[in-house]
Amino acid sequence: MKKWQCFFCSYIYDEALGAPAEGIPAGTRWEDVSEDWICPECGATKEDFAMLEIA
């Protein structure tokens, strides 16, 4: 499972946790999140997220 971070507000979408408040169940992979989904914190588009590298 991966984590994706918003460029603008640093909100993190964690695939393992999903985003239940936005109707995305735990375990939902980023590629399966709807293309019209927006960041719940700042309204940025899915294109404004980058995968976090784990060191």
TrEMBL record:
Quick one: which residues bind Fe cation? C6, C9, C39, C42
Name the Gene Ontology molecular function terms of this record.
electron transfer activity; iron ion binding
GO biological process terms on file: alkane catabolic process
What residue stretches are annotated with the Rubredoxin-like domain? 1-52
Kindly state one GO CC term assigned in the UniProt record.
cytoplasm
Q: Needs which cofactor?
A: Fe(3+)
> What's the protein name?
Rubredoxin
Function summary: Involved in the hydrocarbon hydroxylating system, which transfers electrons from NADH to rubredoxin reductase and then through rubredoxin to alkane 1 monooxygenase.
User: What is the species listed in this Swiss-Prot or TrEMBL entry?
Assistant: Pseudomonas putida
Please state which protein family the record places this protein in: Belongs to the rubredoxin family.
Which pathway does it operate in?
A: Hydrocarbon metabolism; alkane degradation
Q: Which UniProt keywords apply?
A: Electron transport, Iron, Metal-binding, Transport
**CDD domains reported for this sequence:** rubredoxin
